[in-house]
Design brief:
25% of the residues lie in helices and 30% in strands. It is an alpha/beta fold. The longest helix has 22 residues, at 204-225.
Length: 346
């Protein structure tokens, strides 16, 4: 196939639909296609006879999308684009952020911006080195006496501590909503959710490994390093997909620590023993500020899991809300869910 080199050219545009030309040098290739998250089918590139392939796309929708090239069926990253989805499992893809006009909540805006911090630590719970990411809001360093609420925000299966930033643009969503007065300034911590065996991350043992790491390692770390309000009313635990099961299971089982719990697009929820304990101890259920759930209407797995869980919740005194949004099991849904959630917290 020969050496590969590619160039992604982005034309300046103030509209939500902009022209993009994709290039790939792949001498000897028979078929080259573009696989874009925004497209329902793969898009063929045309050769120029000298090993260079290209395609002009007249209009692409605004958003944060993943893409890669398929060269004779082989997934190939764009080596000229350093932005890659930080996934532990699955096919690696590049990330393409196309801003909207006017800017969407996940687009860069001219507002004060927070800071992202990365921490490495030795997990006592897991017996291995781990990493997490912390977001501090704009002005955090200028207000040394202020205490901040804490949001734990988790990714889905295959993702990592960087997924909510790289693909979800959670830091920009926080910056923009805080600057507009729609969300309170908060500290956010994002863990690697694959705390145990990666293939068991979504079963009870994986959730338990996440619980131990979160409570024994991650929260003590951020409590030492950052100025946090210590009461349950100032702590929230949310996630998407796999992270939604982790968040609802650990959060509802630890209402002495978390006053705000929920998730987006869960395909499984806590077992009945969690809710049964809350029914038997209604005073604990009353301490929950809010349980907030959401999923895409086209996400069959999330719908089939969410509706029965709502039926169970209706038999309790737990305060909860849920929302169904357009879309499937995808980041475009989870970004909108975070935008909807943040103004409700704290």
């Amino acid at each position: 196939m020969g050496s590969l080199a590619s160039v992604l050219w982005a034309a300046a545009s103030n509209s939500e639909m902009a022209k993009r030309t994709f290039f790939l040098k792949a001498p000897g290739a028979r078929v080259v296609e573009l696989k874009g998250e925004w497209a329902k089918t793969n898009i063929p590139l045309l050769p120029d006879g000298a090993g260079r392939w290209s395609v002009d796309l007249a209009a692409l929708p605004a958003g944060v999308w993943t893409y890669s090239f398929l060269v004779d069926g082989l997934n190939v990253l764009d080596p000229s684009n350093p932005e890659v989805n930080p996934e532990y499992f699955g096919v690696k893809k590049n990330i393409l952020h196309l801003p909207a006009s006017p800017p969407a909540p996940w687009d860069w805006q001219n507002v004060p911006h927070g800071v992202l911090h990365t921490h490495a630590y030795e997990s006592k719970a897991l017996g291995q080195r781990r990493h997490l990411v912390v977001y501090t809001p704009a002005g955090y360093g200028a207000k040394p006496a202020r205490l901040y609420p804490l949001l734990v925000l988790q990714h889905g299966f295959g993702g990592s501590r960087g997924s909510w930033v790289a693909h979800g643009r959670a830091n920009l969503i926080l910056d923009n909503l805080i600057a507009a007065g729609h969300a309170k300034p908060m500290v956010v911590v994002m863990l690697d959710g694959h705390s145990g065996n990666s293939q068991q991350a979504q079963d009870s043992s994986g959730v338990e490994a996440f619980r131990q790491e979160l409570l024994s390692d991650a929260i003590p770390l951020v409590e030492r390093e950052y100025r946090l309000a210590g009461n349950p009313g100032a702590r929230a635990l949310f996630g998407l997909s796999m992270g939604a099961k982790q968040a609802t299971t650990v959060g509802l089982g630890s209402l002495d620590l978390f006053g705000w719990v929920g998730g987006f697009s869960a395909i499984a929820y806590p077992g009945p023993e969690i809710l049964d304990r809350l029914v038997e101890a209604p005073e604990r259920a009353q301490s929950l500020k809010l349980l907030w759930l959401a999923w895409g209407r086209d996400d069959a797995r999330a719908v089939s899991a969410g509706e029965p869980f709502l039926e169970q919740l209706r038999k309790t005194r737990i305060r909860y809300q849920w929302k169904v949004v357009d879309g499937g099991h995808e980041w475009a849904v989870w970004q909108r869910c975070l935008v909807d959630l943040l103004p409700k917290l704290f």
